[in-house]
Specification:
Layout lengths: L1 E4 L8 H14 L4 E5 L5 H7 L10 H9 L13 E2 L5 E4 L4 H11 L5 H9 L5 E5 L6 H9 L2 E6 L3 H20 L5 E7 L7 H12 L13 H9 L3 H4 L4 H14 L3
Helix pairs in contact: 1-2, 1-11, 3-4, 5-6
């Protein structure tokens, strides 16, 4: 099962959600792979503490190989790294992705990622894909390669407008490239229970029959501590309320996996 976390708007918690769900998946015993497609490499840094020039070889190297293919198999061109967490492996991102993007677009390489993941399906029971903000080459590749999509939503008016655009784009990609792609739901993130605006926005979206998932992830300084420690919450603070919310969300998604 391949799950992509996508929203065009930045700052909605894509990397945090992807990493924490993947960490819980691995903690629960699933052979889990996280693929980082964002040139900012936030997920890579979160899980390894490495980033920038220190980032390990990963998906950028694979895409370079697709531009200059050799005789070896697709699978042999990918660098997969162990993380400090059992059952959780990583295909890292780096800033190189930005420079490669225009070349990949002009050479119509949008299906290469799906072929790579096809070759890895027997090795991993769960694959999580973190995407860049915006509908660019890499996020399109991810949506074409995935089975399911989660959309983070952080309860402001700009996020609401972005949400409508994301749903339209997913429908278009589903129709043109990937009929199996399904929106699993909208993940409410950084939820502030005492703020009136989130309540009003969510009530309006629910009235519109938007697929809001019934687990709301709270806003907490513990997430920033988790980033700084390079430890997902299930390892840093397993009994914290936010950790339990992530577990509840994971269980809800697994019911339909």
């Amino acid at each position: 099962m391949r799950r992509v976390v996508f929203n065009q708007k930045g700052g909605v918690g894509k990397s945090s959600i992807t990493c924490n769900l993947a960490a819980i998946s691995a903690f629960e015993g699933y052979r889990t792979l996280l693929l980082d497609l964002d040139a900012h490499a936030n997920a890579t840094r979160y899980l390894t503490g490495l980033g920038g020039d220190d980032a390990p070889l990963g998906i950028a190297d694979f895409f370079k190989q697709t531009l200059f293919p050799g005789p070896a198999s697709i699978k042999s061109h990918i660098h997969i790294h162990e993380t400090p967490f059992n059952n959780l492996h990583l295909i890292s991102a780096s800033s190189e992705l930005e420079a490669l993007q225009s070349k990949l677009e002009t050479r119509c390489k949008i299906h290469k990622l799906g072929k790579l993941l096809d070759s890895l399906d027997e090795d991993y029971e769960r694959i999580y894909i973190d995407t860049p903000p915006g509908l660019n080459f890499y996020s399109i590749c991810a949506l074409i390669a995935a089975d399911r999509c989660l959309i983070p939503f952080d309860c402001d008016s700009f996020s609401r407008e972005a949400l409508y655009a994301v749903l339209r784009e997913i429908e278009e990609i589903k129709g043109d490239h990937n009929v199996r792609l399904e929106v699993e739901g909208i993940v409410v993130n950084q939820y502030q229970v005492r703020n009136a605006l989130p309540h009003r926005l969510l009530d309006e979206l629910l009235d519109e029959n938007m697929p809001i998932l019934p687990v709301y992830l709270m806003s907490s300084v513990k997430m920033r501590e988790s980033h700084q420690a390079c430890k997902p919450l299930i390892y840093l603070a397993p009994h914290h309320k936010l950790s339990r919310q992530f577990e509840e969300l994971f269980d809800l998604l697994e019911e339909h996996a």
